[in-house]
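Risk register update: the risk of archive-format incompatibility is retired. Evidence:
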Amino acid sequence: MGLAVEMPLEMEGKMLNSLAILLLAMGLLACGEGEKDELGPYVQTIQGFETHTKKLSTYRNYLTTPGMESKADAVKETYQVLIDELKKIELEDKKMRSAHNALVRGLTESLRKIGEPSSPTFVVTAARSIKFASSTIQKFYGTLELLWKDSERAEPFPLKWEPVD
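Archived output:
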């Protein structure tokens, strides 16, 4: 046996009106100001890190040029600064966050592989590490470029990466 409560029609009408107003308000709040643009500011932030990524390319050139190897001794610090700065960035967009986290993981792996400057194999391992990092950065830039195109922006994608051989 269920309890049935009968309401006067006036109360039902008021409840339906209240429900309709509540749903309308929720819909307006959900639409709000539209989707927050994280991509533009994020790409600008990444542009600020290009000095670090270009240093990695320079170190790779030093490592592959006889007599210049000692100039690449700061490569570990460059990796660490870049990784630390990237870890400070928080993103809401799951695609951007996924690409960002893949970049951080790739650079962390590159740092792990590099070895110690005093090691006899440092030149070889550091050069390979930078090549791996270059590949990671190139994939990351490619992903950002796809997201950029999907967002239908008028301006061209501002990041370019020259792969390291």
